[in-house]
Amino acid sequence: MALFGTFGSLIFAIIAALVSGLLLWITAKLFKLKGGFGVAFMIALIIGVVNWAIGFVLGFIPFVGAWLGGIISLIVSIWLGITLIKSKYHQDTSKAVVVWLVWFVLSMVATFILAFIAGVLLVGTGLAMGAGSMMFGG
């Protein structure tokens, strides 16, 4: 089960990187930055994999690991996101910060929507499995 959770979180990180890359690409278009979806996806994927690795490593530390992992992931995401936007889109720091901030807000909204959909699917599946096992005496 733990192995599935580890790989499941990695798969979710890749899917999230696709969505996040799309949102960064849209944000870059709003700010008229040059660079296609590939650049945006690469930035989002790098940040996603780094955050996954931080969560994986710190996940072995009970309680403090999750709390500390969240703080470290946020700090690394901010620094890495601004740095990569600045270097890959050839922008100054102030514009990179503004682009990152818009992208971050869009990503948070998308994350909440995706988490809600996943939660509904998991709860619905769980309820259906529970009802089925009750019906058939399981």
Distance N to C terminus: 21 Å
Low-confidence stretches: none
The main pleated sheet reads as: none
Order of helices and strands: HHHH
**Mean pLDDT level:** 81
The helix-and-strand class reads mainly alpha
By DSSP, the count of extended strands is 0
Please give the radius of gyration in angstroms: 18 Å
The helix content is: over 70%
Shape: globular
Question: What is the number of helical segments per DSSP (H or I, 4+ residues)?
Answer: 4
* Strand coverage percent: under 5%
Can you walk through the features of this model?
There is one protein chain. The protein has four helices and no strands. It has 138 residues and is mainly alpha-helical. Helix 1 packs antiparallel against helix 2, helix 1 packs across helix 4 and helix 2 runs antiparallel to helix 3. It is globular. The model has no long low-confidence stretch (mean pLDDT 81).
Quick rundown:
The chain is mainly alpha-helical and 138 residues long. Helices cover 86% and strands 0% of the residues. The radius of gyration is 18 Å and the shape is globular.
